[in-house]
Design goal:
The complex is a heterodimer of chains A (429) and B (318).
Chain A lengths: L1 H8 L8 H20 L3 H27 L7 H20 L9 H20 L4 H21 L1 H4 L5 E2 L16 H24 L1 H11 L1 H6 L4 H27 L1 E2 L6 H14 L6 H19 L3 H15 L3 H8 L1 H5 L3 H34 L6 E4 L2 E4 L3 H32 L8
Antiparallel strand pairs in A: 1-2, 3-4
Chain B lengths: L1 H31 L6 H19 L1 H28 L3 H23 L15 E5 L2 E4 H23 L1 H11 L1 H6 L4 H27 L5 H16 L4 H20 L4 H7 L14 H5 L2 H4 L3 H12 L11
Antiparallel strand pairs in B: 1-2
The chains are: A mainly alpha (429), B mainly alpha (318).
Chain lengths: 429, 318
């Protein structure tokens, strides 16, 4: 009965309603006005980087989240697409080809697709651990090849190009960062929409089925291998598009774009954002880019913190940030968010303070060990402290201990409040 | 011929070193289904701990103590980290160990810096044991061979002859049955994980002075170890041994014979292009065997996967 009501409530035109379109329109509007809010050139650079990371992370999540394939070598498809695009840019400069620059990422996408078709033909035979290891091996193989095949990869120094030789589009020659921003934003919207639509197609749906229960999917008559193969190819295509945008933005690609560090980074971004939801990687890419930019400015140890946050996420919040948000949908619907405010303040806040205290102690230890002798002053959370003074050490350790103690003490209360917030008024959960 | 002998010894050293890592990895994998991405990180920790110990009390206590610490650390990671993630499935476990590898690398950089640390072989072994037509073989290399041989034989004896080994073997294939028989399977898992990481620690201690002790050493060897167990067949100890030796010899021989593609292609009757620097195929012509050496293991892995997906000795479907 209820399902019938729901179908009737929806407009007939293929389920395309304002409610479905609203988030996309809002995202497009948001992308359009962002450069007017942050006019700074460095801010636009960060936003470009974010947009590229979002496309790459969404493509990666087609494998990890939707298809259940953990890849340690996905940077290869982005990198190869990017390398191809730099070469095409160089051919445009030499006058061998003429085309408008905005079409370039498409070629990156096709190049990524081609390689994904080739490598996927043997790597998608199995999911899980075997797939992960093959992806690692192939990734390392291609990264190592980049030093040998100098014609294509340019050896140690990589290949660089100039994006301004395309046919001008409405008079834009892409000399300025802001023009590149809108090009990137256009491709971001397009690829995100296409990837979302892919996840709604029967192939995308079967990818979920194969991820959850390959045997049952086989009994329904679907070959799990081919379903994985299609997801893999589509993911390679969008990774290639991200690579093309990378080539346009930075005009240089090196071995770094292919290696394990980049592949690991995208796994980190996607997992932090949350693999269970389509929008998870988007959150992950935004948060990670901001986090990395801010942390990089303030500390040398940023990778240590990112690694620690990542391990903590895997252990305690396997749903990532999107999972955390989604957990709050039920209390929100029940109108019980108010119940959670107080325990959050008394438990999570001290926990965060304890974590920051621990980071402070780490910074002080690092400074005490690394700084030149006699250099004792260091900046810590907008304060000037001495890394050798016992008072400062006692203070930071006390804050850490107190924070964690308070958080631990409040944990049962938080759990009770959480259960309460998830219970409907009638007592049914 | 003499060079062949020298290379055989060098390859044996590399291969046995790889085996110390891959044996632990493959044991852990076949028991728990967990591919421990951080395995090579424990190898690195072994080297660094031994370096720290050798600064105060010398190399030999380090050889004993460092692997013990690494093993205890590994067991703790299994108990408090991996077991927690286990309920989410194998992929999150793999992601967890990957994150752990990142974290361990950062922690090592935090304490010991980014540069290589001067971890040296003990004085007592710092002499040439014998020489083969001018190529002297250091005593340390022979020592490495003996240590790894001893560990392999010890492992084999424990696994096949002792009671504990029998329980482990049973738990490999039928963990639930073993548990109903009253054995503490989680404890066995923790023990195997600890022993596996301790083996990696031993490898780190003896390899540190030869291959260098630096924060990137885990990544350098780590992916080769993965390749090794894939080539040998997941979960097969003999496969790990054969693949380790194969890869050890393959890389050593490739590094020492300077065969150029130029000679091969002209030998086959092709003529080199007039202007090599402009030709599209210049990389093929200028390719040499030492250049290709580092990627040979990966090529081997791809070939094995295409033609024999279970690996050389693997039997079971994962």
């Amino acid at each position: 009965m209820t399902s019938l009501d729901q179908t009737r409530a929806r407009p007939a035109a293929g389920g395309l309603s304002l409610a479905v379109l609203a988030p996309w329109l809002m995202a497009a509007l948001f992308l359009a006005i962002m450069p007017f809010v942050f006019t700074d050139n460095s801010a636009i650079t960060i936003m470009n980087q974010m947009a590229i990371t979002i496309i790459f992370a969404l493509a990666y999540n087609m494998l990890l989240g939707q298809g259940g394939m953990l890849s340690f070598g996905h940077a290869v498809y982005m990198g190869l697409g990017g390398f191809m695009c730099v070469h095409i840019m160089n051919w445009m400069e030499d006058g061998l080809i003429t085309m408008p620059l905005p079409l370039l990422p498409l070629f990156g996408g096709f190049f990524g697709l081609g390689f994904a078709m080739l490598i996927g033909s043997f790597s998608t035979r199995k999911a899980g651990t075997v797939f992960a290891m093959i992806s690692l091996g192939v990734g390392e193989l291609i990264a190592a090849c980049s030093v040998i095949v100098v014609v294509f990869f340019g050896g140690e120094e990589g290949v660089s190009g100039d994006r301004t030789y395309g046919i001008p589009v409405f008079g834009f020659e892409f000399l300025h960062q802001i023009e590149v921003y809108y090009l990137t934003a256009f491709w971001l919207m397009l690829s995100a929409a296409l990837m979302y639509l892919f996840s709604r197609t029967p192939v995308g749906r079967m990818a979920n089925a194969v991820r959850d229960n390959p045997e049952r999917a086989e009994f329904l008559g679907y070959s799990q291998r081919w379903v994985r193969y299609y997801s893999f190819c589509a993911s390679g295509f969008f990774a290639g598009i991200a690579g093309g945008l990378f080539a346009i933005n930075y005009e240089i690609l090196t071995e770094e774009n292919l290696n394990l560090a980049t592949s690991g980074m995208i796994l980190l971004v996607t997992f932090l954002g949350g693999v269970g939801f389509f929008f998870g990687p988007i959150i992950g890419a935004i948060v990670f880019t901001l986090l990395a930019t801010v942390l990089k400015l303030h500390t040398e140890l940023w990778q240590l913190y990112v690694g620690a946050i990542f391990v903590a996420t895997v252990m305690f919040f396997p749903g990532g940030l999107a999972g955390l948000l989604a957990m709050h949908v039920a209390p929100w619907r029940l109108g019980k968010m108010g119940v959670l405010v107080k325990p959050y303040l008394t438990t999570l806040l001290p926990g965060v303070i304890g974590g920051l205290g621990l980071a402070g102690a780490t910074e002080m230890l690092f400074h005490a060990r690394e700084a030149a002798t006699g250099d004792e002053a260091m900046g810590l959370f907008f304060m000037e402290v001495s890394s050798h003074s016992p008072v400062a050490w006692a203070a930071v350790l006390a804050v850490t201990a107190a924070g964690f103690w308070l958080a631990r003490r409040g944990a049962p209360g938080l759990k009770a409040a959480w259960d309460e917030a998830n219970t409907a008024p009638g007592g049914r959960r | 011929m003499d060079l062949v002998l020298v290379n055989l010894i060098d390859g044996l050293v590399t291969g046995l070193l790889l085996f110390m890592l891959s044996s632990g990895l493959t044991l852990i994998f076949s028991m728990m289904g967990v591919l421990n991405f951080a395995h090579a990180s424990f190898y690195m920790l072994g080297a660094y701990f031994a370096y720290q110990i050798s600064k105060s009390v010398g190399f030999w206590p380090g050889l004993l103590i460092a692997p013990l610490i690494v093993g205890v650390l590994g067991a703790l990671v299994e108990r408090y980290g991996l077991r927690r993630v286990h309920k989410y499935g194998h992929v999150p476990e793999l992601i967890f160990t990957f994150g752990l590898a990142l974290l361990i690398e950062e922690i090592v950089q935090f304490f010991w810096g980014r540069a290589q640390v001067p971890f040296l072989a003990p004085e007592a072994l710092n002499f040439a044991l014998f020489s083969i037509s001018g190529n002297s073989i250091p005593a340390y290399k022979v020592f490495m061979i003996f240590i790894s041989m001893a560990i392999f034989i010890g492992l084999l004896l424990v696994l096949t002859k002792s009671r504990v080994g029998l329980i482990i073997q049973a738990a490999l294939s039928h963990p639930q049955t073993v548990e109903t028989l009253g054995h503490n399977v989680p404890l066995i898992f923790m023990g195997v994980f600890g022993v596996g990481t301790a083996l990696a620690g031993v490898a780190g201690v003896i390899a540190g002075p030869v291959l260098g002790t630096f924060p990137g050493m885990a990544i350098v060897l780590g992916s080769i170890v993965f390749v090794t167990i894939v080539v040998g067949g997941l979960g097969s100890l003999w496969g790990a041994l054969v693949a380790s030796l194969l890869i050890g010899w393959l890389t050593t021989f490739a590094a020492s014979y300077n065969v150029g593609m130029m000679d091969v292609l002209t030998g086959l009757g092709f003529t080199p292009p007039e202007d090599l620097s402009e030709s599209l195929f210049r990389d093929i012509w200028s390719l040499t065997l030492p250049q290709v050496g580092p990627i040979l293991p990966y090529l081997l892995m791809v070939m094995v996967l295409v033609f024999r997906p279970y690996g050389l000795f693997g039997k079971r479907d994962v």
